[in-house]
Amino acid sequence: MKEKNVIIKTKLSIVIGCALLATGCAGKKPNAHLDSARSVYERVSSSDVVNEFSTEDLNVAKLKLDDAVDAWKDKKSKGEINKRAYIAEKYALIAEQRSTLLQHQAQIENGKLERTNAQMDLRVNEADAAKKAALDMTAKAEQLQKEVQMREQKLQAQLAEISELKALQAQNTDRGMVLTLGDVLFDTGESTLRAGAINNINQVAAFLQKYPDRTLQIEGHTDSTGDDEFNYNLSTDRALAVRSVLQEQGIDGSRIVARGLGENAPIASNSVAEGRQRNRRVEIIFNQTEDTLLSGIDE
Amino acid sequence: MALTQTSIRNAEAAGAVDYASKPLRAAQQKVAIAQRLIDRKKYDRAKSHLALAIVDAELAEASAEAKKSALAEDELAQSIDLMKKEIERAQGQ
């Protein structure tokens, strides 16, 4: 294409050269329209865009310019020369406009490709976002399922713990699970535990070993018979005696608070023998832990 | 005459009224002159004007097409720009 262009330009310069040489020669007067057509053609034919996109239109313009030059050389009428020069100039301009059109069209094709790519990128982005959202939701669902499972396991553990306490004959109260050791487990007026009681307390120790987070309060109580101070001391000694047995079984003393309340917290009337017997007792209170969600729930 | 008028109609259809009014007007003026010459039975000169009017009309058509393609290209470039910005924004998140 370049080569062709060079040839065209060479031809043109010959034409112009002739015209210029001829200007001084006999008969041929300079023609302003022809000069104008030539200069427009020269400008258009040197445009890179025209040479890339509309060489055919440029060739037509060249032929028209040749026509005009021929008319001038053949000394045709001024009107004829002007007419051909006008046509030649317009065809050069048409070639220029065509090249502009074709250049834009080529760029539009590129743009369409680019737009398609961008649209694909956008869709890929959207798909990625949707995929991520789906994965997030799946992960969330799995997390929730795990939480539900953990809660269920915890619940089962707590139920197991409570049923073990119940097996120890503990009662569910608003202070938590309470195991009451009766009066019959002690010698009258003494704080020494009878052999039968030891077995009972060993079961509590086994429970505490199994559930190391559990802590206890041990409370000694008496009936209202006798001296207040004696009752207080007796209840305290009995509570401490229970604590000692647990410690002998390897339970850490820091988990157990033992105290005597004397006759101050009766659970039955002291005016009848049966009531008094119920009041003489040691209570083992299993403190609620953070995990004992079921505490207070009546089963 | 018919050929010239076809060329002018083509130019108008290409949008020359809006995008290439100058060469279109030149063509129309030449047709008007040609019409007057025909009325005066000066057919050769009329023919001459009509031939030139065709060239004007062709230039008007080519210019209008070129202008329209430039506008279309701008519009496309803008829409691509918008899309790219949207992609950048989405990827930035």
Walk me through this protein's architecture.
The complex is a heterodimer of chains A (299) and B (93). Chain A is an alpha+beta fold and 299 residues long. Chain A contains eight helices and five strands; from the N terminus they run αααααββαβαβαβ. Chain A has helices at residues 2-23, 32-45, 48-53, 55-73, 78-167, 195-210, 228-248, 273-279, and strands spanning 171-173, 176-182, 216-221, 256-260, 281-286. Chain A has a five-stranded mixed β-sheet. In chain A, α7 (228-248) links the parallel β3 and β4. Chain B is an all-alpha fold and 93 residues long. Chain B has a domain at 2-66. Helix content of chain B is 91%, strand content 0%. Chain B contains four helices and no strands. Chain B is rod-shaped and about 80 Å long.
Summarize the structure.
The complex is a heterodimer of chains A (299) and B (93). Chain A is an alpha+beta fold and 299 residues long.
Sequence-ordered SSE layout with sheet pairings:
The complex is a heterodimer of chains A (299) and B (93).
Chain A: H1 2-23, H2 32-45, H3 48-53, H4 55-73, H5 78-167, E1 171-173, E2 176-182, H6 195-210, E3 216-221, H7 228-248, E4 256-260, H8 273-279, E5 281-286
Parallel strand pairs in A: 3-4
Antiparallel strand pairs in A: 1-2, 2-5, 3-5
Chain B: H1 2-13, H2 16-19, H3 21-39, H4 43-92
Q: Compute the gyration radius of chain A: what is it?
A: 57 Å
The most extensive contact between chains is:
A-B, 27 and 26 residues
Number of strands of chain B: 0
Return residue spans of chain B where pLDDT drops below 50 for at least 5 consecutive residues.
Answer: none
Q: Which structural class do you get from the secondary structure elements of chain A?
A: alpha+beta
Features:
heterodimer; A: 299 residues; alpha+beta; 60s Ribosomal Protein L30, Chain: A; five-stranded mixed sheet; 8 helices; 5 strands; disordered C terminus; B: 93 residues; mainly alpha; 4 helices; 91% helix
